[in-house]
Amino acid sequence: MYIEKVEIRNFKAIENMTIEFHQGTNLLIGDNGAGKTSILEALTVALNGIMTGVSGVPVRNIRQEDIRFSLNLLGGASTGIQYHNPTEVTCHLKYGDERYRWTRSRQDETARLNTKMDDKKISRYFTQIANDPNSVLPLLSFESEARVWQNRRGDFGKELKKS
Length: 163
Prior knowledge:
Number of helices: 3
Number of domains: 1
Strand content: 25-35%
Largest sheet: 5 strands, antiparallel
Order of helices and strands: EEHEEEEEHH
Radius of gyration: 19 Å
Distance between the termini: 44 Å
Structural class: alpha+beta
CATH superfamily: P-loop containing nucleotide triphosphate hydrolases
CATH architecture: 3-Layer(aba) Sandwich
């Protein structure tokens, strides 16, 4: 099982992007602020679409702060925020000989999240194996560095002490 492709639209600073993945290890390389973390967060939103039926699994939805926006400027001053809609993340997954596709979208900054699956079989499959104590589950992990930096910035310039 692997993700073949993800399509991201109006998610954070990403206007429109398609990324194809290969079986095995894939690397995202880019400068700071290029969008590597945004891609991983979009993948988290997409993968949560097939996990919504699994009890005890926290769901990562498209939040208002994930919606791409721009500031309207008039004479050098901001006159307001313009949200770019809809915000969508489409995931293409290959499992054996089967291919699955689903889209998670939010139509505007006030709307609820919508998940559209071309085939709900993959969601039912994940729900079934997650509830079977004898099944072997895939391991997916994403730990954002943003959390680490937020905690450490207050310590900048202080002397390090041995424990």
